[in-house]
Amino acid sequence: MDDISDRLKDELIKNPEAKLEDLKNLQEWCSSKNFPALKDFELLQFHHSCLFDMKSTKKCIDAYFRIRRSAPELFSNRDVSKEPLKSYISRVLQCFPLGATQEGHQIIMYRLLNPDASQHCFTLDIQLLSLATEVIQHKTGTFPGVTILTDFDKASIRHMLWAKWGHLRVAMQYLQEGFPSRLESIQTLSSTAFVDYALIAIKPFTNSQVLNKMVYHNITNLSTLYEKIPKENLPSDYGGLLPSCDEINSDYMKEVISMKSYFDEKDALHNSSGVKVNK
């Protein structure tokens, strides 16, 4: 491994369980599999997400590249300054980080704006959600866990009829097998029966660990949500102390646009068709 970068030094201080020898072994293993080169701190993110278990880390890295290669439409062409994402963000769905709790857990807001199911595109949802997670990972490095806060109050059974279930299945596979962060929970807001139907639909391809991390709140009474996410980490739209969703999303979009070259380079490398698929 090359000389230790300042970023890796910081990560090793944060994670005393991590060993340089393990990272070196992972680097050599990735090379033997013809995977694109991962930076040292990126390897540590995978290792951290798998509780520093080498076997699990290798499986996670393998799944990460395999899934991104098999579904490039979900993990590429994610320029929010161009269509279709530009208008989609303003009229259909917002997805942005809300910062970290005092314990260091990162929160991501996933908010449906438009009740018209014909306007909804789950492929674009996944692109926006992957952007949000990767912005956090790039800026923060490792962190204790991520909570996804979803507002599906405007969703209906029609959204399920319009959904691309193949893409949803791939997204859940990525979350369960190839996601280089620890999933803390999925907190869902709704006052409709959509959540019940959606849960039935995703059960066949969602493992028990993820299902057990899903928590549902009636949006007409947010007291249970405040027990899971403090008001300090919630937008004013939900009785929180942060600015409104529109304000947060506007600032976040400027940040994502400023990172365009980073994402273009990462997508070209990590979604490469030259990656060997390991069965």
TrEMBL record:
<dbReference type="InterPro" id="IPR001251">
    <property type="entry name" value="CRAL-TRIO_dom"/>
</dbReference>
<dbReference type="Pfam" id="PF00650">
    <property type="entry name" value="CRAL_TRIO"/>
</dbReference>
<feature type="domain" description="CRAL-TRIO">
    <location>
        <begin position="98"/>
        <end position="246"/>
    </location>
</feature>
<dbReference type="InterPro" id="IPR036273">
    <property type="entry name" value="CRAL/TRIO_N_dom_sf"/>
</dbReference>
<dbReference type="GO" id="GO:1902936">
    <property type="term" value="F:phosphatidylinositol bisphosphate binding"/>
</dbReference>
<dbReference type="InterPro" id="IPR036865">
    <property type="entry name" value="CRAL-TRIO_dom_sf"/>
</dbReference>
<protein>
    <recommendedName>
        <fullName>CRAL-TRIO domain-containing protein</fullName>
    </recommendedName>
</protein>
<dbReference type="GO" id="GO:0016020">
    <property type="term" value="C:membrane"/>
</dbReference>
